[in-house]
Write a structure and sequence with these properties.
Order of helices and strands: HHHHHHHH
Number of domains: 1
Mean pLDDT: 92
Number of helices: 8
Number of strands: 0
Shape: globular
CATH architecture: Orthogonal Bundle
Low-confidence stretches: 6-15
Distance between the termini: 30 Å
CATH topology: Fic-like fold
CATH class: Mainly Alpha
Strand content: under 5%
Radius of gyration: 16 Å
CATH superfamily: Fido-like domain
Helix content: 40-55%
Structural class: mainly alpha
Length: about 200
């Protein structure tokens, strides 16, 4: 399953908005009217806006947010009106992310590690970018990994009384020079350098 938001950043592939979805891309799709990538992006954006209008997400503590079940619940809230498998970890191999059999363990380990990052001496922006990068790199879901990771990171920042990231102030699903900068920052984080991602996240 490909996705313009979480298409592998190492390939630079972004499907054009008007490109029809293939039958493979539609696997698990709930909405019969969605025929193109532009349709899909619009449907997902509406679902995400509805989810983020739910007040409960803004009352969760940092510790509660750093729970793999809560992370799956957040993904389900963001995409459940579009995808039948929303909130469930992917079960197939992709050319990005870990082996699907390891996803549950990886996300739980990330959440445990991040508790120390967010509550220790690490700067909150650094902790947020480390969490974001590791979650995107794990690629736990078939679709929406980047958007889920950005929302999850912003909720964590809010839980600590910090301002959420601005993420370049554009829609990162769409191909743009800003998205290219985001991908470059993720690639730098792959190499252990989180500074470009920290800078981008506050741009």
């Amino acid at each position: 399953m490909s996705d313009s938001d979480n298409a592998p950043w190492r390939t630079g592939h972004e499907p054009a908005g008007a490109t029809p979805l293939s039958e493979h891309d539609k696997n698990g799709l709930r909405l019969s009217w969605v025929a193109t990538w532009a349709d899909l992006n619009a449907a997902e954006a509406a679902n995400i806006a509805k989810a983020l209008g739910m007040r409960r997400w803004y009352g969760y503590s940092t510790e509660k947010l750093l729970d793999d079940h809560v992370q799956r619940t957040l993904h389900r809230a963001m995409f459940d009106e579009v995808w039948k498998w929303a909130g469930r970890y992917r079960t197939t191999e992709t050319n990005i992310g870990c082996d699907p059999h390891h996803i549950g363990v990886r996300v739980r380990e990330l959440c445990e590690n991040a508790k120390h990052w967010f509550t220790g001496t690490m700067a909150v922006d650094e902790a947020g970018c480390m969490f974001h990068h590791e979650l995107v790199a794990t690629h736990p879901f078939a679709n929406g990994n980047g958007r889920h990771a950005r929302v999850a990171t912003d909720l964590l920042l809010r839980s600590l009384g910090a301002q959420p990231f601005t993420w370049g102030r554009v829609n990162l699903v769409q191909a743009s020079t800003t998205r290219k900068a985001y991908i470059a920052a993720l690639q730098a984080a792959d190499r252990g350098d989180h500074e470009p991602l920290i800078t981008f996240a506050r741009s």
